[in-house]
From TrEMBL:
The enzyme's E.C. designation: 2.4.2.9
Lineage start: Bacteria, Pseudomonadati, Pseudomonadota, Betaproteobacteria, Burkholderiales
Protein name: Uracil phosphoribosyltransferase
Primary role: Catalyzes the conversion of uracil and 5-phospho-alpha-D-ribose 1-diphosphate (PRPP) to UMP and diphosphate.
Keyword Nucleotide-binding annotated: yes
Organism: Rhodoferax fermentans
Amino acid sequence: MTTSDPFVHVITHPLVQHKLTLMRRKDASTTSFRTLLNELAMLMAYEVTRDMPTQDVEVETPLETMTATMIDGKKLALASILRAGNGLLEGFLAVVPGARVGHIGLYRDPATLQAVEYYFKMPKDMPERDVIVVDPMLATGHSAIAAITRVKALQPRSIKFVCLLTCPEGVKALREAHPDVQIFTAAIDRQLNDHGYILPGLGDAGDRIFGTQ
Ligand code: URA
């Protein structure tokens, strides 16, 4: 599914779609799931950082001096929603190695499906930072909404949200709660089931990343 909402970006690049399909397969091993997730995170990081400001700098090549382009000293923070968000960190950090990393511990109350916070640690200087909140699955949206609410209270310069997979229910909930936050995803699947899982989805992302299923 695609969307005309300019705040929702479905990354349709063939490499992203191919790797996502391999991850969906129920017989994908933990090793290949992790490898694919790393690769996907790198490809997604490339898209998510597309609007980073740049500046012209002088550089001396072995042959002459030229004016070239560099990132404009932006301070980036990644905020991982534990535990599955950690699965996206390695790939993101491969592309933006200087980013600081915060963690937000939330668990889903199985009865209410609401997010309950148990850990919150962010880098310093948040008002100077652009934040990318990462969690592979945007399902009910409860965790993402709670995490972004906490991050927003620290008044960062901007916040983006990145997931691998979402569903119409998750997109709607997050858009309504945080209309200023851009969402990046590799796919918007059909629906959420009664247990808060995305269909067809890929199962429990945390279990598949850490091999705890
Ligand atoms: N979290 C997951 O890991 N998978 C889903 O389908 C929904 C939430």
